[in-house]
Amino acid sequence: MRYELIDYQREAAIGVVDRLRLGRELWASSKMPSSFALSAITGAGKTVIAAAVIEALLYGSADLGAEAEHNATFLWITDDPALNRQTRNRMLGASDLLLPHTLMEIDDGFLEQELRPNRCYFLNTQKLSKTSRLVQSGTNLRQVSFWEILTNTINGDKVNLYLILDEAHRGMRRTPDRTTIVQRLIQGEKGSNPPAPVVWGISATIDRFTKAIGEMKDRAAYPHVVVDIEKVRASGLVKDSIGLDQPDEKGTFSTTLLRDAIRAAREFEARWAAYCDAAGEPKVLPALVIQVPDKSDAAKIGEFVQVVESEWPDLGPNAIAHVFGEHEPVVLGSRTIGWVYPESIETERDIRVVLAKEAISTGWDCPRAEVLYSERPAKDATHIAQVIGRMVRQPLAHRIATDDALNSVTCYLPLFDRKALSSIKDELEGKAAENGENKVGPEVVRDPKVFERNPRIAAEVFEFIETLPSIPTPDTSASPLRRAKNLVRLLADDVSGRALLEDADALLTQALNARMDGLAAEHAAAVAANVTDIKTVVVHTSKVTTTGQDAGASSRQIETHAKDIDRDTRRIIKSVKEGVGAAYYAHRISQSDLVANKLDIRVEVAALLRVDGVIAEIEATANKFVQKQLTKFAVEIKNTTGATRDAYRKVQEQTPAPEAITVELRANEKAATKKGDGEALPTFEGHIYSDAAGRFPAQLNDWEQEVVTTEINRRSFVAWYRNPQRATPNSLRIPYQDETSKWASLQIDFIIVSRRDDGTLAASIVDPHGDHLADAKAKLRALADFADNHGECFLRIQSVAKAADGTLRVLDLLDAKVRKAVRTFEGGKVSALYLSAHATLYK
Amino acid sequence: MAEGFGENVQFFELTYLDAEVVELDIAFCSVAPLLWLRAGGRGPIIGESLDAAGRRKPYAWTDAYGVLFNPDRWRTFVGNRRESASTAFVVTDSQTTFAGIASELPGTLDVVRLYENYLTTFAINWGYL
């Protein structure tokens, strides 16, 4: 792969590889077909996951724990040839192993008898419609139809066929006889093609997939691979928020809101310019999308363009383009608006304003489109949601820590009233359509504003909060070797001649090789036994007389065939992640004399790697190396910015066990100023981000509000921080395992900073989380563990709940007795704990 | 025709190589012409590239392609890329190192991992076409 997979992508890829293997085995052993789906929201990187899986099955991957199959072949089905081409191009870009001849489009010119192994074929269902040439046979042009090709492939023994049904795209136009074609592909047809052995669906939601393929008979179903939306959000690949702006009074909008939208686009431009300059990253040129009414004529479009030109001077001649269904240019007095392929907008940087009508074609994906102005009526909520879905990726594929405005997109919807606006919010939150297909990662907020750091709060308070511990959710698929390789690459980054650790990669390799040399000596006997094991095969022979009587059994050892030794040892060495096995083998060769037999050395290396516990030792060495460097360069790493900081952060968070880092505050914060229903939010003082008057809006329920007010009024109060509710770096995160022992992240509600009598700052966690919520017990225990390990950093670690009598009750986890009570609590609902003697009245 | 051709010609010996020797990175000179060909067969061939002291240089670029021998020098390798180059070869056994470096190079560049991918794409007798 040309990209490093993000942890959830790797986890998903491994899940898919497992199911494909299971499906293949099931088919081989009992001709039972199977299916499963991979689902993830837009922007999660489904194509990247798919490319990684295909690469792993065709070529093997230590990273995904897959061996090459050598006879796997994929058939990728969608409804849209343009979409297939786009997917194919993305895969070619994402993978260094998948080459153009491996990823083949099937069209009328496809004349082979069967599908070849080691390919991924792309096909759109239209090509299988009754009138299509591809399904004809016995003609001059075509001997066998595609259905026969499919039959030959499935019935032959040369190929393991995997059918991929790509349903992931919003607003995909369905062809009329699509269901029949898809059904026939999957279920087969009597007298024609057999069922597809293994079906892998890719979809935005599982529901959508099940609907698309219809009812399945006689097919084993493996559990679906569902990408956790919280992990996608935490990754920073998608925007954090979508702001919905709407006029306060009906009828006053005319061009005011369009002007606002243009100003917003220009503000994005200025903020990106400032950020990219400072961080040395590629320049991002944001685009504005204007959705015009269906029946807009040249005059109407002219009005829009006039406003754009007046608000946005110096737009180039190609800066405004359209993606209407009719491809003709729109000729206006001042300029000609040309039609462009929606797919090309992302790369054609001259284009700054895009005019569109209903949904833009499915292939369109445009992260740099950050502002939407839509003059479509409220009944078009679905179409608008689909367009917004195209805008949610982060242009630089990571979150921007220094300017929160860049972590959002903004939508202006003048024709929406309050009620209609909540319908689009529902769409984007996946509540509108039954199958939730328009659900996006970002949070939908009303009239968001950027809040800078509160001028009334001293800089030392921000610095103090940034010393507080935060524990990222452990990554169960994390590999210490991968983590070490990531770190050394960053340390050796000699961009301006200031590499933190020159030759970091070489040093790591040396450390690992030295450890393996040591392990070889420690485990000499076990290695020798493994060598014998690899080189020989035990053959058991039972003798039976001609009359059927047992004449005794014997066994003898024979030498393994050289070719098998070669293959087995290679496989063992290659299975060690990050080429660490291969590097050690090279090291051993370089240490040996010239006449030594390379195969003997290889057998010894493989024998060592097979000894129980050796891999764990190697990983421990890598971990130690990482810990040492992270500690040594802690300050330097903290001082890095932009993409480099992000890369270091990933290394810090790439750990299979909880490991504490610190909270990283953003330079500013973008937050909603109105509730979902459009009512203004109450504002509070003392928050670390605020408007010029020192106030910050927050949506709090009555008792959260009571808690905040109580804290603000304490004599020792200095500041409060609404801890972000998503597991992002600016949040104080506490991991916990839910009842299925899957890791999740708890974001406590409030951090309160106070001043002790001696003048020093102190922090408290106050978490009015509620005893009624799911996982309340697991979360309380997580707080208790956190207090055990990091209690010294806090004055109070309080969990607050509202009792039935309306009073607020608090458990302070800094009290060892309370922690004990929490851990030994057996009941189902934790409410009882808040009523016990361990809890006190919150005041 | 009387003035001769504008083209050059290069002769190579076609032979079999032990995959293992290639993989161990001790036969770079033998595969060098193939890398050059894969990168379009333009300009000079990047050979072992030793410095004055006889040590292997960390990387080399021509107008057509580049080879990174030492992953610890990846940033200067990326920084010194020639605009006209179409291909970059990166010598590393680590998938992560490769991906990290490849993602810093423009998407239009063909980035090849040595020797893993080299062997995968040039190997014969895999039991299929």
Overview of this structure, please?
- The complex is a heterodimer of chains A (843) and B (129).
- In chain A, the strands form eight sheets. A nine-stranded mixed β-sheet of chain A has the order 12-13-11-14-10-15-16-9-17, sandwiched between helices.
- Chain A has four domains: 7-233, Rossmann fold (3-Layer(aba) Sandwich); 236-446, P-loop containing nucleotide triphosphate hydrolases (Rossmann fold); 466-473 and 656-841, no CATH class; 480-628, no CATH class.
- The radius of gyration of chain A is 31 Å and the shape is globular.
- The model of chain A has no long low-confidence stretch (mean pLDDT 88).
- In chain A, helix 10 packs across helix 11, helix 13 (480-491) packs antiparallel against helix 21 (642-653) and helix 17 crosses helix 18.
- The longest helix of chain A has 24 residues, at 7-30.
- By secondary structure, chain A is α/β, with parallel strands linked by helices.
- Chain B is of the alpha/beta class and 129 residues long.
- Chain B has one domain.
- Chain B is 29% helix and 13% strand.
- Chain B contains five helices and four strands, in the order ααββαβαβα.
- Chain B has helices at residues 19-23, 28-38, 74-79, 95-102, 116-122, and strands at residues 59-61, 65-68, 87-91, 110-114.
- In chain B, strands 1-2-3-4 form a four-stranded mixed β-sheet, sandwiched between helices.
- In chain B, strand 1 (59-61) and strand 2 (65-68) form a beta hairpin.
- Chains A and B meet through helix 13, helix 14 and helix 17 of A and helix 3, helix 4, strand 4 and helix 5 of B.
